[in-house]
Amino acid sequence: MPALHLSSNVVSNSPDGLPSVLPEREMASYHTPYPEPRLLADIGATYARFCLEQVSGRFDYVTVLPCADYAGFIAVMQAYLDSLPGTTRPRHAAVAIANPIEGDWVRMTNRDWAFSIEEAQRALGLATLLVVNNFTALAMSLPKVGAEGREQVGGGEPQANGVIGLLGPGTGLGVSGLVPTGDRWTTLATEGGHVSFSPADERELKVLSYAWRKMPHVSAERLVSGPGLEIIYQALTEGEAGVTGELGTADIVQRAIQKLCPWCMQAVDCFCNMLGTMASNLALTLGATGGIYIGGGIVPRLGGTFLGSGFRERFEAKGRFSGYVARIPTYVLTAENSVFHGVSSLLADHVPAHEGGNPLMERVRQARNTLSPAERRVADFVLENPRTVLNDAIAVIAQMAEVSQPTVIRFCRSLGFQGLADFKLKLASGLTGHIPVQRTQVRRQDATPDLCAKVLDNTISAIVQFRESLNVDAVDRAIGVLRDAKRVEFYAMGNSSVVAIDAQHKLFRFRIPSVAHTDASMQTLSAELLGPQDVAVFISSSGQPPELVRAAGIAQERGAAVICITSSKSPLARKASICIPVDHGEDSSTFISMISRILHLLVVDMVSVGVAVRREPGASMPRLGTGGAAEAGGRAAPGVLISHVE
Hints:
This protein is an alpha/beta fold.
């Protein structure tokens, strides 16, 4: 076995630098002894770094192992475990790895290692194995980085409980954010490094023009990174006599620091300015009043060269918002083993040390004997297939567990969750280190399982986000107006026509005469017949079609109440007496707005059920089936005409 570079040194960073930013729960648990030691690891393409955390925030037995000496992930992990004293065997482990983590199977990009997280957990004898992306872990380390672990560039003061931004130029350009949510921090899983690069002066325009000749799309990562620094050097020296040919990133940085090459100095200066623009863009996008941190492998190596660059000047060059960004501090991360702090925080959230706290899987195990026999079958399926559950629909989970779909919901509620979506969010947070409320683009090359998972994930995420942003007051007012209306017309066209037909069927089941108008030529004529006791309901993804906007204006002029289910900033929304905003962005130029249609259907369900249960006291109440649709019954309401929007 290769020699282990074992050290019993203690590495610890106290959080005195950000006392107002750390939540009280984290402050209380910092430097708290754990009942059992915890294994923390940072595995890159070249080296794997390990430590043992026996007291929160204190890292013992720090070890660095060369990855090339081991056959794979399990082998290098086992080597470190074998080196520990027999009394310090950890049961819980958290590993940061330089790779996207999207499921149980992990295949490293820059090393030929591939492994199953669940198989590795069993092979290593661990009760918990949390594997996260290394940039997610770095983001989670920021609240615990004190003044000694960072160097401020320029002025500004962090705002208490403000959002924090993180940039990491290295082999690529990592971009993340840290959002305070209650008593904890939530990382943003982003691909912000792939936004389009935007030049800010003629020198950068020259670099962009050079890069355009080599690639059709130039993202920020193409230039604000290690490989990007090489492109900058090549662009600036193109056609210049007596210039050294192609140089690697390390050589460019070294020659710039030692002031041996004016072209290298100019390339590094250009790189720092570009990074300043990217950092201020991130600060404005996130509202990062808690500060912007710069990590990665390049900037810390620049030292004083970076501090004397135009980074901060470019950061504050934001025109009307210069004063805003000038108040935001920028820092270079200098702390060693920052990732250890990050994976420690993520593991602490997944396996809390405070009384009553247990990892979710342990919580399921302990609750199993208190569940009904049917709910136990759900628990067993979850325990055996935790990562599969993240992508499985409720129907699939019910089928695999051999139970009914309501049983799956009862299982989630028995554990204290609102439902399956709430359970999946907590499960995903524990397994991946961040809450995956994000949209994943479906690509032509996707295999069928990936395509299905992406469609389901996108829909689930959109519904969860919509639940949080739903204007309940607007829904309530719409129900009241519709309940008292003499006549109702729903207007829609294009993709939204299907929603109009669905609404028509619902009203028929309530014994309300209804019709759907989806022909643009008929909508203006219909609107002209409305009166003060009538209601016109418009549904549109974009809220832009001029036919709908014109019909809404006519309905308003006739004195009818106008309800719009559409984008909150659209022309149609401005015509509304009541607007139920549905703000979900989809590229409708590329594909049909499927998610927006689903959200519109949900709004129609909410309003329809609301009208059904709030009928006049003297009227028979429609009977609600288990699916949420109202079954026929009760006294017929006044006539209703329905039309819908794109």
